[in-house]
């Protein structure tokens, strides 16, 4: 059912992502429906810190700033960081590998919101990735994940679709797990510890 998967380094994907950005690969832009879903689930920031893991060109980081969060966007690919800073000069964008770098280097010890858009599917060690997120979520915080999933009406699964088992892992063990479908194969998850 899952079909061929894109080869991905077992640990640490910086070279993979940097090459993709340098080759000009770009990703699905935020649209109104997704922006409204995020706003509805997360609410306004009121100056609270937010972390956007794998921020790419920084559109979601900038959206969080506009919603009143003190957002930090992190990405492991230098070209993405350069692009994000150029597109959103006021945003706090940092070169940071969430899998490898020390979370103590982040500007806040905890975040009211952590977002992860089109990134979770690619995390090499998903349990470690999720543990890292849980350690950084403030009490009452929300983990917002956007990911492609396999639409059973469409065969085969695409390489960028999260596996059903990975979605199960993602959504397990939270006090509240809400799902918002943006289409047959795009999901948002609002996860609360
Ligand atoms: C498919 S792109 C999505 C970019 C952006 N979130 C968006 O929605 O347009 C995945 C991004 O995650 C970044 N990334 C992947 N693994 C990462 C990690 N361990 N730490 C930081 N960034 C990571 C990649 O460099 C890439 O920019």
From TrEMBL:
Q: Methyltransferase type domain location, by residue?
A: 51-144
Q: Which InterPro entries match?
A: Methyltransf_11, SAM-dependent_MTases_sf
Protein origin, superkingdom = Bacteria
Quote the protein name from its UniProt record: Methyltransferase type 11 domain-containing protein
| Organism of this sequence | Streptomyces ambofaciens
């Amino acid at each position: 059912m899952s079909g061929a998967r894109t080869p991905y380094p077992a640990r640490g994907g910086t070279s993979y992502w940097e090459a993709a950005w340098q080759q000009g690969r770009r990703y699905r832009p935020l649209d109104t429906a997704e922006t409204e879903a995020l706003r509805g689930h997360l609410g306004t920031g009121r100056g609270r810190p937010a972390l956007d893991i794998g921020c790419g060109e920084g559109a979601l980081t900038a959206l969080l700033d506009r919603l009143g969060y003190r957002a930090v966007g992190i990405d492991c690919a230098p070209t993405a960081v350069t692009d994000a800073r150029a597109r959103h000069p006021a945003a706090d964008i940092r070169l940071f590998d969430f899998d490898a770098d020390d979370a103590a280097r982040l500007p806040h010890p905890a975040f009211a919101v952590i977002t992860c858009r089109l990134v979770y599917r690619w995390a090499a060690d998903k349990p470690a990735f999720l543990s890292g997120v849980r350690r950084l979520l403030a009490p009452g915080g929300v983990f917002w994940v956007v990911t492609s999933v396999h639409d059973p009406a469409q065969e085969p699964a695409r390489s960028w679709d999260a596996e059903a088992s990975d979605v199960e892992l993602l959504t397990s063990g939270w006090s509240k797990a809400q799902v918002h479908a943006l289409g047959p194969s795009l999901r948002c998850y609002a996860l609360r510890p």
